[in-house]
């Protein structure tokens, strides 16, 4: 299994990128959102990857974070969702947007992805509603990107200067809030739904405030 590719971009397209790794060019299929985020040709790049193996086909699919890769794994477990449909959904919603849509039962958001019809979108929401909270709760751990390093063994004339280190990932308030609520005894699906809804509140600007807003939604109604 090829779990990560790190090298130099030698070609970019709307739905794939070719990465040179010590003289070997790997074609990695990506979502349009990921493609737009990649550096230009000639610069270092790293992606987490998932290898699709068929009798007559080998394809690599790339993701900027482990969180997106995990969502891809879940999406492709749904009947009717192949790798390309998964990339279309992730490219439209992103990892956080997908988690929020599933938690809220918002299948219309999933349907907005190219090639995804209403029945398939509803199936995604129904089948992943119980699995999504655990991924959302792990978001803080899985949002670390693939961390491209300075490419070794490149000729000095072609080596690009290393880019400045990426800023530390921002705190994932959603993940922390879901984890806290499940520790309080709420069902993961209920906790994820309340946190997703509470995140619309502009006052929920940190974990504690997000938890309080979610608890108000979870409180029994008179």
In terms of topology, how is this protein built?
Layout: E1 4-12, E2 16-21, E3 24-29, H1 32-37, E4 44-54, E5 57-63, H2 66-75, H3 83-103, H4 107-111, H5 118-128, H6 132-137, H7 139-142, H8 173-183, H9 188-198, H10 207-218
Parallel strand pairs: 3-5
Antiparallel strand pairs: 1-2, 1-4, 2-3, 4-5
Helix pairs in contact: 2-3, 3-9, 8-9, 8-10, 9-10
What does this structure look like?
- Residues 65-142 are annotated as: Domain II.
- Residues 174-219 form the Holliday junction DNA helicase RuvA C-terminal domain.
- This is Holliday junction branch migration complex subunit RuvA.
- The structure is a single chain.
- The protein has helices at residues 32-37, 66-75, 83-103, 107-111, 118-128, 132-137, 139-142, 173-183, 188-198, 207-218, and strands at residues 4-12, 16-21, 24-29, 44-54, 57-63.
- Strands 1-2-3-5-4 form a 5-stranded mixed beta barrel.
- It folds into 3 domains: 4-64, OB fold (Dihydrolipoamide Acetyltransferase, E2P); 66-136, 5' to 3' exonuclease, C-terminal subdomain (DNA polymerase, domain 1), CATH 1.10.150.20; 173-218, Helicase, Ruva Protein, domain 3 (Orthogonal Bundle).
- With 222 residues, it is α+β, with helices and mostly antiparallel strands.
- The model is unreliable at 150-171 (pLDDT under 50).
- The N and C termini lie far apart (54 Å).
- A hairpin with a 3-residue loop joins β1 and β2 (16-21).
- The longest helix has 21 residues, at 83-103.
- α9 packs across α10.
- The protein is globular.
